[in-house]
């Protein structure tokens, strides 16, 4: 038990970050019914951005997140404008393939520019002892950052004008347009936010483990599993689902080789999709 | 409906037929290798088209059938000593069985949910095979060179494998055509357009989707066995190159989803482009990015792919541009 | 009796959409199903043709219990439907749309014979000259006719028509009504949901009325029109009732 507990807690803390990533994915789905297959690639870009700020400019990774936020938001606008705006009304297959194409482009260019050698952020935030359990500073800070970001997102969506507009559009786009809400801008903003959340989650993840441009795809699968668990379009579900998956990842390796984790996650994914497609918490 | 009287069928069929014939007559090894890759892609793209183009279900994990069927077929040859054509059939049958099992779970999902599930299938398949003992784990399986002896040595075996692939590719094109023009195919396109309405009209959607899925899985299993036999080995990273799943998808979209000629042209064009890129120093690493760009441009501007575009520009040739 | 609906109830979460609906339909009739918006008419159609099962009750079609069968099984037994919100198969031609009906309906035609049957059905609804066009290119009235042709090509024993006149102008309505009369004369049995009062009252042999998921009246058009409950729920104006009856 004493072996499993630290593992679970570690997993839960990481799970906060998974939750942030999943929130990005679920936000985009909730607002515009698009499944962003570039999600993982964006996370990877967030990892690299944080890394370069750290290794080349000696910027503390957590402070570097501020830059990641801005850059990712703009990047999201760009992707929406170039790849999605034209086909947003054309049905799920077009948007799916469009985001997929973006994914291929990012990974392709990323592989060429960054190669596949792993990068690592050698940043220690110390460790903290709670009784028998030792927790790493990076995990705690990441969990804290995740909570702050979630709170900020909540405040934005419920207390600012653009945030309320986003909620209106996700609720009923036609009606929102009739009320004068410029939906194209709102969709771009939503996509930007979703991208931003993914990139920030990536940045936080980069403080945990070494990564390459290809690391995003594993996290993308996790994000999908989480979104499906928590209900597509449900941000709270994404956060809770993230914690659940993080905890699960803490437990599974104690009785199964780590390489089976993707199989378990996929099985869970299909199981939930088949048994309860609206997710355990209900989707929109 | 008989293929022999349809111009649309002949164009696709003859392209593949003549292509293979030229290679056989020329007798050159390098040409054969290039043609092998093209035929393989045509077969994979056409079989994906049955599910994606006709039925409207986008499968991001198509390569799984190639990999699993190929693994099994290879296993039959290298460990069980089966002859090539039987082993290939075995690979095809296994793929179909896997499709039946996976399909029972995922075919009830619609649209984007189905696509997502297929992405997960690929990841899981790769992880599974890496851990599965009889398939050699992460290092895979190797063929004993004596397996080539029954065909008169490695050189002869490669030509025989090529001929088999040529025949199989012709078969895929023919089957694809027959499906498209059958009552079954009409039901599939009804499912693609509006599955619920199709069911109200009497189309047994669950059963028909499963049949389409099985059909689309069978041929990659055959083809995979041939490919790995030719290479002499099979390993997880090679068999489940997710990238290849994506590339096959791009080929279908590039050529024209839902058409007969589309996957043929798309596979050929993509393979040529890929070959060109891989031998150009600067662009070598960018071929995935370029594929993505091609896909994006098609989705945004020419959703009907090459054949769709041609159909619009050359309405008089519609009969041929099937 | 071609159709017997017995004590059918349907609920969606907290909403009771249908309560204890029972009626019978003899063969060869046109029966009109009327009621205010939200009364549950389309829900009743959905239960009859298998889109979802009822919580309670039975649907018996030509002596066979079809309750809870999936919609494709019901279709194969000879029940075809034209939807209120038209659902054409967009990327197929008009002819191919109708062929689907013929291939998968009661008579399970091969593709070849379905094509000629489709042309007949299209001629009957007046869409013959558009047979080669893609369904997406039709206007609303034409799409409604396509729905009808698709249902006819299935050669059903019973035809469910859901507001085929909605969205049509008066001349289009007259044309469609004429087509429906012809279909009835060919021996089809028709159950039709309709809001265009004059039309449904004039063409139906029997009328049933739904209000808030319950059957509140059944009978001939004059009987129903004179029923105070119906008037209260729906027609509203006794003078209008009298005028309708006089026509």
Quick recap:
The complex is a heterotrimer of chains A (284), B (322) and C (247). Chain A is mainly α. Helix content of chain A is 73%, strand content 3%.
Describe the fold and architecture.
- The complex is a heterotrimer of chains A (284), B (322) and C (247).
- Chain A is mainly α and 284 residues long.
- Chain A has eleven helices and two strands.
- Chain A has one domain (4-215).
- The longest helix of chain A has 29 residues, at 4-32.
- The relative contact order of chain A is 0.21.
- Chain B has one domain (3-240).
- Chain B has helices at residues 7-26, 29-54, 63-78, 84-106, 111-131, 154-180, 183-193, 195-200, 205-231, 236-239, 242-255, 261-279, 287-301, 305-313, and strands spanning 141-142, 233-234.
- Chain B is globular.
- Chain B starts with 6 loop residues before the first helix and ends in a 9-residue tail after the last helix.
- Chain C has 247 residues and is of the alpha/beta class.
- Chain C has two domains: 1-78 and 158-247, P-loop containing nucleotide triphosphate hydrolases (Rossmann fold); 84-156, no CATH class.
- Chain C is 40% helix and 24% strand.
- The longest helix of chain C has 16 residues, at 170-185.
- The two termini of chain C are 30 Å apart.
- The interface between A and B is large, with 42 and 39 residues.
Which fold name corresponds to the CATH topology of the largest domain in chain C? Rossmann fold
Largest sheet of chain A: 2 strands, antiparallel
Please compute the radius of gyration of chain C using only Cα atoms. Answer: 18 Å
Percent of residues in helices of chain A comes to over 70%
The coarse overall form of chain A would be globular
Proportion of residues in extended strands of chain A = under 5%
CATH architecture of the largest domain in chain C: 3-Layer(aba) Sandwich
Q: State the shape of chain C.
A: globular
Structural class of chain A: mainly alpha
| Chain pair with largest interface | A-B, 42 and 39 residues
Distance between the termini of chain C: 30 Å
Identify the strand order in the major beta sheet of chain A. 1-2
Oligomer: heterotrimer
């Amino acid at each position: 038990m004493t072996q499993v507990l630290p593992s679970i807690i570690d997993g839960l803390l990481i799970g906060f970050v998974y939750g942030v990533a999943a929130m990005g994915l679920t936000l985009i789905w909730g607002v515009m019914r698009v499944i962003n297959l570039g999600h993982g690639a964006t996370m990877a870009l967030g990892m690299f951005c944080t890394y370069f700020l750290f290794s080349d400019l000696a910027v503390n990774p957590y402070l570097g997140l501020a830059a990641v936020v801005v850059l990712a938001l703009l990047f999201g606008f760009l992707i929406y404008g170039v790849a999605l705006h034209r086909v947003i009304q054309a049905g799920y297959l077009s948007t799916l393939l469009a985001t997929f194409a973006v994914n291929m482009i990012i990974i392709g260019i990323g592989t060429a520019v960054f190669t596949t050698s792993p990068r690592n952020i050698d940043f220690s935030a110390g460790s903290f002892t709670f009784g028998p359990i030792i927790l790493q500073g990076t995990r705690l800070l990441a969990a804290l950052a995740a909570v702050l970001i979630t709170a900020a997102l909540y405040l934005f969506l419920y207390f600012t004008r653009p945030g309320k507009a986003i909620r209106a559009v996700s609720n009923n786009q036609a009606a929102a347009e009739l009320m004068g809400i410029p939906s194209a801008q709102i969709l771009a903003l939503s996509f930007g936010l979703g991208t931003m959340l993914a990139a920030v989650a990536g940045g936080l993840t980069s403080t945990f483990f070494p990564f390459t441009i290809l690391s995003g795809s594993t996290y993308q699968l996790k994000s999908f599993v989480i979104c499906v668990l928590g209900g597509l379009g449900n941000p709270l579900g994404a956060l809770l689902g993230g914690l659940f998956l993080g905890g699960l990842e803490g437990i599974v390796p104690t009785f199964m080789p780590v390489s089976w984790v993707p199989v378990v996650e996929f099985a869970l994914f299909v199981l939930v999709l088949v048994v309860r497609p609206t997710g355990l918490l209900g989707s929109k | 409906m008989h293929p022999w009287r349809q111009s649309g069928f002949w164009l696709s069929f003859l392209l593949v037929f003549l292509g293979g014939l030229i290679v056989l007559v020329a007798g050159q090894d390098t040409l054969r290798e290039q043609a092998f890759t093209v035929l393989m892609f045509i077969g994979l793209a056409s079989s994906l088209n049955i599910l994606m183009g006709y039925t409207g279900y986008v499968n991001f994990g198509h390569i799984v059938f190639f990999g699993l069927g190929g693994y099994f077929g290879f296993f039959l040859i290298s460990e069980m000593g089966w002859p090539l054509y039987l082993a290939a059939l075995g690979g095809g049958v296994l793929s179909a069985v896997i499709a039946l099992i996976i399909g029972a779970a995922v075919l009830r999902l619609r649209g984007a949910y189905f696509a997502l599930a297929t992405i997960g299938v690929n990841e899981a398949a790769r992880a599974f095979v890496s851990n599965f003992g009889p398939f050699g784990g992460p290092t895979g399986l190797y063929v004993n060179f004596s397996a080539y002896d029954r065909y008169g040595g490695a050189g002869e075996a490669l030509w025989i494998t090529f001929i088999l692939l040529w025949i199989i590719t012709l078969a895929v094109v023919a089957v694809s055509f027959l499906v498209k023009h059958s009552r079954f195919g009409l039901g599939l396109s009804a499912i693609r357009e509006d599955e619920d309405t199709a069911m109200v009209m009497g189309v047994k959607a669950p059963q028909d989707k499963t049949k389409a899925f099985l059909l689309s899985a069978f041929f990659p299993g055959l083809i995979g066995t041939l490919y790995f036999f030719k290479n002499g080995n099979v390993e997880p990273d090679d068999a489940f190159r997710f990238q290849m799943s994506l590339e096959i998808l791009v080929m279908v979209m590039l050529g024209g989803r839902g058409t007969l000629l589309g996957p043929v042209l798309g596979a050929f064009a993509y393979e040529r482009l890929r070959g060109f890129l891989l031998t150009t120093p600067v662009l070598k690493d960018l071929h995935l990015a370029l594929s993505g760009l091609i896909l994006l441009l098609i989705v945004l501007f020419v959703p009907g792919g090459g054949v769709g575009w041609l159909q619009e520009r050359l309405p008089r040739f519609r009969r041929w541009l099937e | 009796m071609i159709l017997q609906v017995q004590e059918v109830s349907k609920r969606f979460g907290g909403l009771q959409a249908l309560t204890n609906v029972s009626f019978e339909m003899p063969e060869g009739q046109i029966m009109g199903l009327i009621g205010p918006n939200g009364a549950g008419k389309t829900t009743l159609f959905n239960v009859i043709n298998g889109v979802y099962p009822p919580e309670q009750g039975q649907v018996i079609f030509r002596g066979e219990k079809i309750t809870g069968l999936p919609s494709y099984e019901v279709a194969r037994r000879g029940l075809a439907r034209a939807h209120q919100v038209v659902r054409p198969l967009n990327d197929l031609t008009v002819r191919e749309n109708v062929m689907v009906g013929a291939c998968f309906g009661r008579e399970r035609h091969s593709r070849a014979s379905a094509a000629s049957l489709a042309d007949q059905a299209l001629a009957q609804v007046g869409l013959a000259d558009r047979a080669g066009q893609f369904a997406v290119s039709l206007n609303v009235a034409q799409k409604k006719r396509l729905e009808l042709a698709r249902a006819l090509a299935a050669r059903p024993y019973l035809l469910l028509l859901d507001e085929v006149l909605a969205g049509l102008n008066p001349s289009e309505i007259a044309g469609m009504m004429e087509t429906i009369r012809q279909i009835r004369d060919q021996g089809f049995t028709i159950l039709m949901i309709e809001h265009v009062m004059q039309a449904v009252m004039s063409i139906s042999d029997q009328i049933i009325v739904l209000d808030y998921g319950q059957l509140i009246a059944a009978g001939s058009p004059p009987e129903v029109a004179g029923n105070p409950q119906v008037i209260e729920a729906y027609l509203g104006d006794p003078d209008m009732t009298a005028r309708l009856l006089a026509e």
